[in-house]
Specification:
The complex is a heterodimer of chains A (about 775) and B (about 220). Chain A is mostly helical. Chain A has helices spanning about 1-10, 20-35, 45-50, 70-90, 90-95, 100-115, 125-145, 145-150, 155-180, 190-200, 205-215, 220-250, 255-290, 300-315, 320-340, 340-370, 380-405, 415-420, 430-435, 445-475, 485-505, 510-530, 540-560, 575, 590-615, 620-645, 655-665, 670, 695-700, 750-765; strands at about 715, 740. Chain A is globular and about 110 Å long. Chain B is built from ten helices and four strands. Chain B has helices spanning about 10-20, 25-35, 45-50, 60-70, 90-95, 105-125, 135-145, 155-170, 185-190, 200, and strands spanning about 45, 85, 130-135, 185. Classes of the chains: A mainly alpha (about 775), B mainly alpha (about 220). Chain A: It comes from Huso huso (Beluga).
Chain lengths: ~775, ~220
């Protein structure tokens, strides 16, 4: 069992030595925590000095109340972030315990500390929660939702979200009511409607908790999207049930009419929320079409429109979460086509940052609220709640899966069902909803809150901690880290078209047919309106290709031209794929002859170049600069060579600045033909590199031992030595045939071998 | 068994169902569709398929139609070449490549199904039947995929080249500079598809086909 192994290894190591970083962190934490509880009132002193008598000018004064609220908010956020830092300094801990558990524990500690200091710890205010802390997390989830996986499994997700949640609520509510009716438990005052209300609050799977735990276990995409999608879409059901039962709990009874209205309300809430989201998403996409001149505020539009969608939905009591998801999903393809690369990065990082901070704060506050909140512990109630939660979840999943599997192509196995059932975590949404209950209508609110917190703790701690070893134990398929390759894209598109075509031949208007129709409609009308300029007509394959090129170019430049994959890199390059078949076949002997002639010519010119430099341009700094430039060009050339291994960038593509500079400063096509025009002291660009076979050959032939490193020293292998000694100046070497080879830049494109072939051909014709 | 009379009898249907793996209802439904497409004749010709209006917007229409008349898809060991017209049995055989997975399938059967489907795909790419997808053929595929957009320029060549390079990298790993990569063989093709569940992706739901929505 991996957990046991971990514990065994950790016990073998020396006892935990508190390093000084941890002490620093602890000091920081204490420093931030204590002021949160301190209630200073120093400004009172200032007010009393009202100018009755002239006193000395206050050089330094202390006025905390002035900044109290923002200060405390900032301190809380700082605390949350420091906690996150701290966990990752303790590696072993973060492997065993998921972050959410640790954060709740920290919250408990902080709450305890504040209580010890004597203050009342702040409780998680529902308004703050729903309006400030929840939206970033949901937006982050919605914006980066994997559309393909989601749309393929929509039916399943909806079944789990709607029917599963309904089943859970009614089962829980009913069973709890039955238990409460048992005489002797002291719970007789819990009526049917309050227990149904409680059931509806506690039965919803929480997206925050699911995200927090599932992100760390890297489970396969199908299961992830099923559980996560369910947690997102059950918001509509929860909202309707909550309002329904809350309204009528006071009245005491629900008629059939009310139930019917409830169903209609559900449809309105969910579809209305989605509609609101789509509306704002389209407006956002349209706005982003015009932002080409103010790139800096592009991310702001994304955030603001999404938040407005959420708030507008909340105004009408529609499902804010569904609005947010719909907005993100609709907005994304058009906005990404319109905004700059930097804005895209900004949006990604801001969303991740905000959602991360929100999540941390939520869990910490949960811990603090546990310490703070009024509790009323009742063993039977809490125990039964816990039991029924688990039972109803398991029964619900099993029952629904047996129905769903009749319609699915990829059936859900027992392992999958177990993970889905086990992954139904409850979280802060349940707590906030419970907190919103009015004490007047619900005298047993405290008991409810206690039960909710217990269930949350149980699911997050027990289920959250054990899900990772269980996933390992059951050998559930993990997420595959495959990079989207261009091949995959081509094949996927081909397959899509093929399946659509077959459906048309069959006459069956199925899934692919409608998807194809939608995408054609999208391309024809919508993209024209929402995407600026040329990009609207760009087909998906080309857009994907450009994106991939850009990504690879950025990676390459970032890594400084060194390929990420070490020596096992493939040596397959373009010349393996498309050798120039147009060349007439020269016999081997003739080729050798041509090579020798050209080699000797090249060397001659190189000697001339060297001598020209040495004699006439004697200034040392010039040569240093020259060498520097050559080294830089060499690096750029290496960069390019590797690029041609990965990509085939046609010549008219916009290149990275390095490549453009290098291409501009050397134009070998023109120069190489001047090889035999001997008298012009032109700078000849030598296309040979250390990797080309002939320079290697020459290098290996005669290497003088004990020589200091002077770069690649090329010893000329000359069949006739008569013409080589004309103007050779060798820097004090013995053999006049030694020269220093200047590695110069050659043109990008086909490797030198082939280029030489071309030139030979041009030569001969 | 070439052409059928207007209504095949029970034995024929059952025989076909066994051979191709469809259920009896599916065979009947497909037979009705066949009749509709071929305008009540006994054999189907290319013009009949080209006449389907929905198929016109499909960029790879020619290749799909060609796949129906490609002998390689009728039988595993059949010779290469194309035919001019097909009967119902061949129609059904081609359609059977798109059967979904059955729940209780052994590993071996799954593997078999996977190979069949991938062979079908491979045949669609490999136009000249030489067992390899050359660069030209690949370029043709990409060109077809992009054919609905007017301004492709030489992008399709670049994309196909990059894709080929990737395929070669996956399949061959290390190559000398003067080795030539002829094309993607079927084994290489299998390698490229290792991560993806073709059995689940390449299927059409034959269960519910409403004949009333069938077009001309």
């Amino acid at each position: 069992m991996p957990v046991r192994d971990l514990l065994r290894t950790s016990s073998k190591l020396s006892p935990f030595q508190p390093r000084y970083e941890h002490l620093l962190l602890l000091v920081c934490v204490l420093g931030t925590v204590l002021p949160l509880g301190v209630d200073c009132n120093p400004s009172a002193e200032n007010h009393q000095n009202n100018g009755t008598q002239k006193k000395s000018f206050p050089v330094l004064s202390f006025d905390y109340l002035h900044v109290r609220l923002p200060f405390e908010i900032a301190l809380w956020i700082l605390l949350a972030s420091l906690m996150k830092l701290g966990f990752h300094l303790i590696p072993r801990l973060s492997n065993i315990v998921p972050e959410s558990c640790l954060l709740i524990v920290v919250g408990l500690l902080v709450g305890g500390l504040i209580k010890v200091v004597g203050e009342a710890p702040p409780v998680l205010d529902s308004k703050v929660f729903f309006l400030c802390l929840l939206p970033p997390i949901i937006l982050d989830a919605g914006y980066f939702l994997p559309i393909r996986a989601f749309s393929e499994n929509t039916g399943t997700i909806l079944m789990f979200a709607v029917i599963g949640t309904l089943w859970n609520s009614f089962f829980m509510g009913g069973m709890l009511y039955a238990v409460c009716q048992i005489p002797g438990t002291g719970l007789e005052n819990v009526g049917l409607l309050p227990s149904l209300l409680f059931g509806s609050i506690i039965s919803a799977v929480d997206p925050v908790a699911v995200l927090a735990v599932f992100e760390e276990i890297h489970i396969n995409e199908l299961l992830h999207i099923l559980v996560f999608g369910e947690s997102l879409l059950n918001d509509a059901v929860t909202v309707v049930l909550y309002h329904l039962f809350e309204e009528y709990a006071g009245v005491g009874s629900v008629t059939f009419m009310d139930v019917l209205l409830g169903v209609i309300c559900f449809l309105v809430v969910s579809l209305g929320g989605v509609f609101m989201g789509i509306l704002y998403g389209l407006i956002a996409a349209f706005t982003s079409r015009f932002t080409s001149h103010t790139r800096v505020i592009e991310p702001l539009f994304v955030f603001l429109y999404s938040y407005m969608a959420y708030l507008s939905a909340e105004v009408f009591h529609l499902s804010g979460i569904m609005a947010l998801i719909a907005c993100g999903v609709v907005m994304r393809p058009y906005v990404e086509a319109n905004i700059s690369q930097k804005s895209h990065t900004t949006i990604k990082y801001f969303l991740k940052m905000w959602s991360s901070v929100s999540e941390t704060l939520i869990f910490i506050f949960l811990g603090v609220s546990t310490v703070a909140g009024p509790h009323q512990w009742n063993w039977i109630f809490v125990g039964c709640t816990l039991l029924f939660c688990l039972v109803s979840r398991v029964l619900g999943v099993i029952g629904l899966t047996s129905i769903i599997n009749k319609f699915r192509i990829v059936k859900l196995t027992t392992k999958d069902q177990f993970i889905i059932a086990y992954g139904g975590l409850r979280g802060a949404i349940a707590f906030s909803l419970g907190f919103l209950l009015d004490k007047g209508h619900f005298p047993m609110r405290d008991m409810f809150l206690t039960a909710i917190i217990t269930v949350i703790f149980f699911t997050v701690f027990v289920q959250g901690m054990t899900i990772r070893p269980l996933v390992e134990l059951l050998a559930v398929k993990k997420k595959q880290e495959t990079k989207r390759s261009i091949n995959e894209e081509i094949h996927t598109q081909f397959l899509d078209h093929l399946l659509t075509g077959i459906e048309d031949v069959c006459g069956h208007y199925g899934h692919h047919h409608w998807k194809d129709k939608l995408s054609r409609f999208n391309k024809k009308y919508i993209k024209k309106c929402l995407i600026a300029g040329e990009r609207s007509k760009e087909p998906q394959l080309i857009a994907f290709y450009h994106k991939m090129e850009m990504k690879q170019a950025i990676e390459l430049v970032e890594s400084g031209g060194i390929p990420k994959i070490p020596s096992a890199v493939s040596t397959v390059s373009m010349q393996n794929i498309k050798p120039k078949r147009a060349l007439p076949q020269l016999s081997k002997g003739k080729e050798e002859e041509i090579r020798n002639i050209l080699r000797s010519n090249l060397q001659r010119t190189r000697q001339r170049l060297r001598s020209y430099n040495r004699h006439t341009l004697m200034a040392d700094p010039y040569e240093d600069a020259w060498n520097q430039m050559l080294i830089r060009r060499q690096k750029a050339r290496q960069l390019e060579k590797r690029m041609t291994n990965y990509l085939t960038v046609p010549a008219n593509h916009p290149d990275s600045p390095t490549m453009m500079r290098s291409r501009l400063s050397s134009d070998p096509q023109g120069y190489s033909l001047k090889l035999n025009s001997g008298n012009v002291p032109a700078i000849v660009v030598d296309p040979a590199t250390p990797q080309s076979p002939e320079s290697m050959k020459l290098l290996e032939e005669s290497s003088k031992p004990g020589e200091e490193d002077q770069g690649i020293v090329m010893r000329a292998k000359l069949p006739e030595s008569s013409r080589t000694d004309d103007n050779v100046f060798t820097p004090g070497e013995d053999s006049p045939k030694e020269q220093r080879l200047i590695r110069c830049l050659s043109d990008p494109g086909p490797p030198p071998e082939e280029e030489k072939d071309d030139e030979y051909q041009a030569f001969l014709n | 068994m070439g052409a059928f009379h207007s209504r095949p009898d029970e034995n024929d249907i059952r025989h076909l169902a066994e051979k191709t793996g469809f259920s009896v209802e599916q065979v009947e439904i497909l037979h009705r569709r066949f009749k509709q497409l071929s305008r009540d004749e006994d054999t189907l010709q290319r013009e009949h398929l080209y006449g389907i209006p929905d198929l016109e917007c499909n960029p790879i229409r020619t290749q799909i139609v060609a796949a129906f008349f490609d002998k390689r898809n009728f039988d595993k060991d059949s010779p290469q070449g194309t035919v001019q017209e097909i009967g119902f049995e061949q129609f059904l055989t081609v359609m059977s490549h798109f059967r979904p997975l059955k729940l209780r399938m052994t590993e071996e059967q799954r593997e078999q199904l996977r190979l069949e489907k991938l062979q079908f795909l491979f045949n669609m790419y490999d136009l000249d039947n030489d067992g390899k997808i050359s660069l030209e053929e690949y370029r043709h595929v990409v060109y077809e995929l992009l054919s609905q957009n007017p301004q492709i320029g030489n992008e399709s060549a670049a994309i196909a080249d990059a894709a080929m390079l990737e395929a070669a990298t996956i399949c061959m790993g290390q190559m000398e500079p003067d080795q030539v990569y002829e094309g993607i063989t079927f084994q290489d093709f299998l390698k490229m598809w290792t991560g993806i569940d073709i059995e689940t992706k390449m299927h059409v739901r034959f269960l519910k086909m409403d004949n009333t929505t069938l077009c001309k």
